[in-house]
Amino acid sequence: MPLIAPSLLAADFLKLGEECKMLDQSQADWFHLDVMDGQFVPNISYGPMVIEFMRKTSKKTFDVHLMINEPEKYAEAFKKAGADILSVHIEACHHLHRNIQQIKSLGMKAGVAINPHTPVQLLKDILQDIDVVCMMSVNPGFGGQSFIPHTLARITELKSMIREQGLNVLIEIDGGVTLENAAGIVAAGADVLVAGNTVFKSSDPADTISRLKSL
Ligand code: DX5
Ligand code: ZN
Asked: Which atom of ligand 1 is nearest to 141's Cα?
């Protein structure tokens, strides 16, 4: 059974409190929180201040996906805001190992996010130090895009790298996950499914979460 991490990027921000409470009462496992800086990605979302408010609505795991340059400048602020897992992009970090050490020393779980064009093999020497790989199945920056089919082969490749090293790193798939393609993504080896539009634009988000979970 996959873990389900709805992305609040697709939530109605005028009703953010209600959306968070709905997630809290649903079968969602994690809150997926997308932070964009208008530099690393061509969009701007929200930062630690908004996450701090959301934190008051639930004790579930807060999975913060940083799509920002120089994430080391903000790791502490996200810890203070309530992040449990902090993911940084491999493409945004000159000293990835140092970023991971910083995240762990602040008491968070560490994730590495990877863009669709970046070879999975580049994760080989960091897998032993991290908890999650957030594998992008769209180009980061926007919700509501279509799943890139080649991601399935990348999941299989990453899964065998993790197995070869005897590790328990979770594979999280982020972007374009739907009720139609989710089963195939899990069959390829995904452990965590992020879903934004599929959950929040459905007529019954809590039911959609249960259906994703039962795949
Ligand atoms: C994209 C974000 C995703 C996004 C997913 O840059 O990282 O988490 O919110 O949205 P959907 O599920 O709508 O593709
Ligand atoms: Zn994300």
From this structure: 6
